[in-house]
Structures are given as structure tokens and as C-alpha cells.
Amino acid sequence: MKTLFTGALAALAFTAAPALAEYPEKEIQGIIQWGAGGSTDTVMRAVTPHAEEMLGGKVVMQNMTGGVGAIAVKFASAQDADGYTLLMGAENPLLYKVMGLGDIDYSSFVPVNVIARGVPILVANNDAPFDTLEEMVAYIQENPNEVKFGSTGPGGLPSVVTAMLQSEIELTVTAVPYDGDGPALTALQGGAIDVMPAVLGASIEAIKAGRIKPLALIDTQANEALPDVPPITEAYPAFETYLPWGPFFGVFVKEGTPDDVVAKLSEAYAAGVENADFQQLMDDRGFQVMNISGDEAQEFLDKWQSVTSWLVYDAGIAKASPEEFDIPRPE
Amino acid sequence: MTEALQFFLISWLDLKLLGLVALGTFAGIYVGAIPGLSVTMAVSILISFTFAWDVYPALCLMVGIYMGGVYGGSRTAILLNIPGAPSAIATALDGYPLAQKGQAGEAIGLSTVMSFVGGFIGIGVLAVAAPFVSEFALTFQPRDYMLLAILGILLVGSLSGESLLKGVFAGALGLLIGAVGLDPLTAEERFTFGMVELWGGISFIAVMIGLFGVSEALTQLHHIDKAAVKQTIGRIVPSWRAVGKYLPLSLQTSSIGVIIGALPGTGGDIAALMAYDHAKRVTKKPEVPFGEGAAEGLVAPETANNAAVGGAFIPMLTLGIPGDAVTAIIIGAMFIHGLNPGPMLMIEQPQMFWFITGALVLANIFMLIFGLTGIRLFTKIVEMPRAVLIPLILLLSIVGAYAVNNSITDVYWMLLFGAFGYLLKTYGYQVGPVILGVILSRLIDENWRRAIISEQEDLGRLFMGIFTSPLSLVLFGAVVFIFISQTPLWTGLRARFGTARARGDGV
């Protein structure tokens, strides 16, 4: 019914307006890479209405899940480069090549806006026999394989953070995979796993309520939301080379989209992110607003891909070397 | 307490909110009744739609749709043998035979009242024992989910009809269908033959619509000229005596519904099937045998799936953990509206808890009213000539399959499984176990692997874990007991030693 209506409307717009009319002359399709109710979904559905005001058009959002997000990316890259299909995604596509999940990543797209970044944090079950990162490291080194780390599959945030830790510290742990950070954090509260590398936003409510305990932020500085939790670099300065690092959310269009269309979309989303309600939502969920576009966004994406690809490759969980795709090793 | 009551009554006293709950429930019943139009989908569309609204009206609409939708699935299950939603699969087993006997009106009446009873029990548990139940749900370890899934697989025994062997085959096939796609834990491709279209797996809803909807339409073609069953609409609302008679059973099946609903990762579909199996086990002498229109076979799934609604809200409101897919979306909506669902919600915003509880009760009442008033019109559907009815079923099936993911591939899958389901039925295989297999496939697969990985891939440690945890031990005992009770060994033992001794052996 809705599709029919959209179709009718699109047809109407098409016949009514000549080709030179100003963008957007019809509804824009927004493809959300992850499921309804998840972080990406929440962020996109919250920011887009504000961007629509500036854009003067309607963005119809649709969740297209599956294949670690690869299905949505593949779909968006198969559409015309006319700015009428937006890909609303997270960081995962930048790892598709090295993880063997397809040959399309954000290099086939132009960033409209990299909206925000999440801060990773190491949290533990309240009954775990350690309260700080150093105590955890000491305990794991005495009891190899006994401590269970939550994971969300190879290439997911927990696997990258674990790989990052293991690149500097000797840690032999058992990684137990879950469907996403939500189910894993639930398992952490129930004691099915002992430690979880999670996003601050997803775990903050449980931390504030004292249901799980924070060990360290995987960042270079403390966070306003949880001022008492030390950044990892306090105890292990060596991690500075990898940081700041974290998952992010962005809006993309296919490469080859006319520059004026990209500019108009970027302008609209930049204004949308500035909205006070949206900023409040990001603060509440513990996300760092980035609001970058153009070359700045591209630079951020390139650095992210380089750092993370090599981390997962060196940890032995990648299927192909970043070299094959001309991804340079970070300096 | 008076404060709680005040929050509880917000949606009752505001005419606009009251109207929105009513509207949501009404829409939910029809969304739920159409196969493929799911509550999950309706609620996620509502998020964008209600973005600019205040949080109360938005929640009212969502709660109404959720409650109405879970109930609505039973309509088409009873009338056409096509469950409108996965949670109504078990309802079709005895509901459809009743419609075939011309008792569709009574069947819908009973299912409506029982959904209402189940819904109330679910909400009641939410209101009085939410913190306790959510702590209990958290204690479920991967091995417990695994045992629960195995318990679910054993339901094949209840669903396979005349031949257990054929049922086991159909169940195994379902497990296989569920395994297609990227491995959820490692993202390896499984049975995808290199096709990206298969990465996301085969849509479970498409399989369900095909196996039930299309195959039913094809089967009916055999007697296209036979006159439709004339429905006698006598008493729609079941008598107090009847409700009283099923009350003990509905208390048990509602408890199953609340617990399964409260567990993150399992929902109304599994709850309804387990409740059906439970009813079959405890009802010693049904007036009509199960599968031929037993009232108990209708009462059990309908109470359980509506009780699961209240159950699903328990971990959501107390801990910010969704109990099922719909509550996951409602959590997202609450974030957008500036609330922070989590363990602090109950402390910082107690009004939300009581407000939602109040709206749920209201939705449950509207469900009863709307459910009982439209019956005469609805039963006319079965009296339609088959030449009209069959194309209508096919049309609804195609629309439904497409609507789930806006994917034409799903429509092809649906048609393929429709033809396949027809063949299964023709050769005496039931389609129920196939769906059961698909539903449980991921649950069993993921949790078995999680459980064994957690124990450093050591079977000895896994069994140590099972035998040292009371919860796991109870579940393990239930698995062994149900398994043995379905083998010839059990009948032999019962004949020789009596029930008590054999149960001792089982545990």
C-alpha cells in the first residue's frame, strides 16, 4: 500500500517536473544498513527529520538487514548515482574487503556526513575477580583461557578491541560470540560472559545502575558521561597510536553523484546534526558528535580503514591482507 | 501507590490517548490477521510517523498495535488455516478443524476471551513481579537456551500427525532451511552457493506463508465444487462455566507465555507452540481429540501468546533489555523521544512503567471488545465460494510475502514453499514441524555453540555445568522425560512399573 502510494507520487513528480528541476524533485530512499531499534537505526531516524526540513524533501527510510550489512551496501551501489538513494550505515563496510565479505565498501560511495562516533569501553560482570584493567590483565595472565570475552563475530567492535589489546598485552581469553552488543551485554549481566568490549552508549545505563562495572575507556581521555572511568592510555600509553578509534554512523551516496546534489545533502545533514534535540540524544547515548563531510570525512574513513584492517589482519582474523586492496599500514 | 495509580490511569482519562489505544488495537487486529503484515513492521513504520508527537500518544498507538496484532493472527488461522503471524501457528491446529465443522464463531469467541485472559495474566505478572522475573530471565545461560530449544524440537512429537518418522523428517528439513545464510556467529557462508541473495537466509515469514497459505489454497482446489461449510453462529461469548473449566489450563499456559516472552531471544511463537504441547500432555480426556478441534488446543496457544506480550515488556521496562523484536523497536522509539530505557528508567521515570502497564490493560480490554464484535462478518469469509476465496488467499500471500522485506525474492521463495507444502501435505507430511524447525534453528545452533565455546570446547565441563545448576538440571530433566515418554520404552516401563518409577529413571 505504502509502496504503491510512493510509486504513484514518484510518477506524479516525474511527469510534472522537467529534468532540470531542483533536487530533490521526488522522494529520497534511505537504506538503513541495520535492523529496526538498533543504534544505526535510532541515529538515522532521529537525525533525518531535522535534515528534511533543510532539504525541503522527504526521505523514506527502510531497514535492509542481512549479511553483516553487506546486502544494503550492495543494493545502494546498484542504484543510479542521482542522490535519490542514501546509504545509512555504520563502520562495518570498511572491513568487508579484508574480511572477505564482498568487494564493495565506502570507496564506492561519497560521504554526505559522518555523524558521530562511539567510544569503546571495557565492562565486566560485577562478580568478576578484578576491578581495574591492570587487575584484569594480571588475572588473565595467571588463568589463561578462563576469562570469557563477549564478541559479535570476526570484524565486529569487540573483536577489534580485543585484537587491539592483544597487540600490546599478552591476553589469552575465550571469545564467546553473540548476535550483537545488546544480547552480549545481557549475557554479561547474567554472568554467561565475564568481560565485554562494548560501546559506551549501549552500556552506560547498566553502568550507572551498578549492574556491570566499567574497567577502562578505550580512548585517550576521560568522558564527561562517566568521569571516573580511566582511559586505557593512563595505564598503557602504548595504545595512543591506535586511538581515538570507534564505531561510527554516516550517510553516503554513490560515487558519481552530481556535486551540487552532494553539497545540498551535506548541508542538510550538517544542519540536522546541529539540532539541539539530536545533540541531546547523542549526549544521552554517549556518542561523540563528529558532523564532518567532504575531504575531512574521507580522511577519517581512510585512517579508520587503515588502522582497523591492519589490526584484524595482524590478529589473524582477516581473510585477506590489506595490501591486496592498497590499504596502507598506519604510520 | 496513589501515584502509581495516577500514572496507570493517564491513558484511561485522556480521551485522545484512549482513542489512540483503541485505534491501535483495532488496526493491530487487522494487521495481525493478514499473513506477512507483521506487528514488528507496523511498529517500525510508526516510529517515523509519530516522530514529532509526544511520547505518550506514540506509545499508546504502539502498545495497541502490539496487543491487537498478536491476537489478530488467530483470525485467519481459524478461518482459513493460514496463521496471520508466527505466534498463531499452533492456533490453526485445532481452530481450523472447528471452522470446518461450522463452529468458527464459537472458536473465535473462545480464542478472543482466552487471549484476553492470557493478556491479563501477562500484564498482571508485569505489574507485580517485573523485577523478580527479569532477574530470573537473566540467569538463563547459553546452555539453558540450548536445552530450551531442544525441548522445543521435541514438540515435533505433538505436531507430526499420524507418522512420527515423517514429522522428524519435516522438522530436520526446517532446521536445514533455518541454517541457510551467513553464519550468525562467524559470518561464514552456509548453503548459499555463492549467491548474495541467500546471505540473509531464507525469510522465515515467506516460508510460513508459503507452507500454510499457498499450500492450503492448492489443497482446496481438490474440492473446488464442494459447497462451503455453513457456519452456525450461536453463542459467541463462551459461558462462564466454559471459561472456568479452562482456567486451570490457561493459568499454566499463561505462565509458559510470560516466561518465554520475558526471555530475551524467544517470543510468542515458541511460547504458543510449547503451550499447545503442554495442553496436549496434561489434558487427559479432551471432549474432542487434539487436531480435530479440541477447545484446549485453542485455549493454550491463545493464552500463551498474549501472555507473552506482558512478558516481553518485563525485561524491557526493568532493565532496558528487549524481550522480543517488537519491544526492541519500542526501546528505539523511547530513545528518540528522549527517554533512556535501562535499569534506571524504573527509578528515574516510574511514570513510564505504570503508564505502559495502564495502556496495556486498556489495549487488552479493547481487544476483547473489537474481537467479539466483528465475528459475524468475519465468519462470512469461510462461506465465500472457493472460486473467490482461493484467489484471495493467493493475493494476500503474495502481498504479505513481498511486504516483509520489500523483496521480490521472498515472493519466489513463498511460492516455491507453497508448491512444496502442497506436496508434503499430499504425501502425509505435516507442515507444522517444518516451521518449528525453522523457528528453532538459530536458537539451537547459536546456543549450542556458545555453550560449548564457553566451556573451552570440553563436553565434560558442559555436563558439569548442567548438573551443578538447578535451572539447567530442571530443563535437562524435562528434555529427558519428554524424550523418553515418546518412545516405546516408556509405554513398556509404564505397563510394568507405573509412572513414578519411570519418572525417577528419567531424571
UniProtKB/TrEMBL annotation, chain A:
InterPro entries: BUG, Bug_dom1. SUPFAM superfamilies: Periplasmic binding protein-like II. Keywords: Receptor, Signal. Pfam families: TctC. Residues 1-21 form the signal peptide. Gene3D superfamilies: Bordetella uptake gene, domain 1, Periplasmic binding protein-like II. The keyword Signal applies. CDD domains: PBP2_Bug_TTT. Belongs to the UPF0065 (bug) family. PANTHER family: BLR1237 PROTEIN (PTHR42928:SF5), TRICARBOXYLATE-BINDING PROTEIN (PTHR42928). This is Tripartite tricarboxylate transporter family receptor. It comes from Limimaricola soesokkakensis.
Automatic annotation (TrEMBL), chain B:
The chain crosses the membrane at residues 12-33, 39-66, 108-133, 167-186, 198-215, 256-276, 321-340, 352-375, 387-405, 411-441, 462-484. It holds the Pfam family TctA. Keywords: Membrane, Transmembrane, Transmembrane helix. Residues 18-436 form the DUF112 domain. This is Putative tricarboxylic transport membrane protein.
